[in-house]
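We treat protein structure as text, and this decision shapes the records that our systems exchange. Because each token names a local backbone shape, the row as a whole describes the fold. An entry from our holdings is shown next, in its original layout:
>
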Amino acid sequence: MDGAGERSLPEPDSQGSRAGDDIEIVVNVGGVRQVLYGDLLSRYPETRLAELINCLAGGYDTIFSLCDDYDPGKREFYFDRDPDAFKCVIEVYYFGEVHMKKGICPICFKNEMDFWKVDLKFLDDCCKSHLSEKREELEEIARRVQLILDDLGVDTAEGRWRRCQKCVWKFLEKPESSCPARVVAVLSFLLILISSVVMCVGTIPELQVLDAEGNRVEHPTLENVETACIGWFTLEYLLRLLSSPNKLHFALSFMNIVDVLAILPFYVSLTLTHLGARMMELTNVQQAVQALRIMRIARIFKLARHSSGLQTLTYALKRSFKELGLLLMYLAVGIFVFSALGYTMEQSHPETLFKSIPQSFWWAIITMTTVGYGDIYPKTTLGKLNAAISFLCGVIAIALPIHPIINNFVRYYNKQRVLETAAKHELELMELNSSSAGEGKAGGSRSDLDNLSPEAPGQEGPCWSSRLKISHSDTFIPLLTEEKHHRTRLQSCK
């Protein structure tokens, strides 16, 4: 049958290279039929479409290594691929570059380009940035899935101390892991609020008491409450430090530095109170203690550990340095210009409040930021006109960068929610695939964790496990494997 099939193939043109230029290639991609010419395809001979020109001489094995099905009567090649992506890919033969249309998944489009053997260097720069962003999202999803699988899996080869470390770390760092962990996270959140309220209430004169020297100090009850809160924060930090997988990275983390700054002033002031009086004057000790007590405001930043909104705001501000820099530049230029003008215009008034240009900076700041304390104001007509113009310019300068900052906040917040949902979706699909394969495992195996690494050594792009590819059923388009599956036209249409 194979010999008869090969004999039924039309013989290629005997005129050599001229035949390659005049030949018409009919391709049917996902039901969309298109005629291409050899002189067009031969511009990039390494691509799959260019290889179709001379594939008839190699028989069915060569044909089916390039396409899914072939009709000898119509000389038509069938491909079970995305027709919309194909329309973008063939642009390389006409324009020398490929532009990805809106609405196409970047990862799917990359797989399509790999299938048609079109190099990524022909992809437009704007599309490359979109592809890189989507690839980073998939790597983040894989990282989150790997962390969840690490939590689900229990390595029996590890010692008892190592398993205990993992349990404590999971208990304190991941409130969603269990109900007691969630209770501890809520308790820690409430203690942060209580300690912050106690710090503020302790400064009310009516709630303070007099010490032996007649100075006002905090009420003993408030001090006891703060001591209890500091004890909890200290215990929590030490447990997290001891159970941390990477203690150096833990100690240098920003939020952990905030934790240290929140509890360290209490112990330093306690040491100075009991031991410092022997080495220095009592007045200096009290001043040092007051300065350290101001550092207690750092504990309010501990709320960011339990609030995804604060973390999102921090990231949005970090990504908006350019916009914030423009805002500061606009305000700095306006402050300098309007303060100089205000000082000059107010010199004619005998009771002017503008004594110097540096002093006028304060007036320009509170005017352009629409605060207006009223402690310094213009009295001449020109000075009032200058104040009105500075007010309007300040409103415009502040309003211009606000929109990009809000966009960064919303984009990152939505992205985090999508990644979190996608990671859970990946786990559900992996569990379904493992169940259908008869493995009988609720979680992933150790080999799954190894395959989830975002990039394998010796490979150019990210490599994903076969299980992860299967779970991307809505985005992954399978390539032709080396087994050369011979499908009929009916199967290709299906």
Summary: DSSP finds 24 helices and six strands in the chain. Residues 1-20, 439-494 have pLDDT under 50 and may be disordered. The longest helix spans residues 402-436.
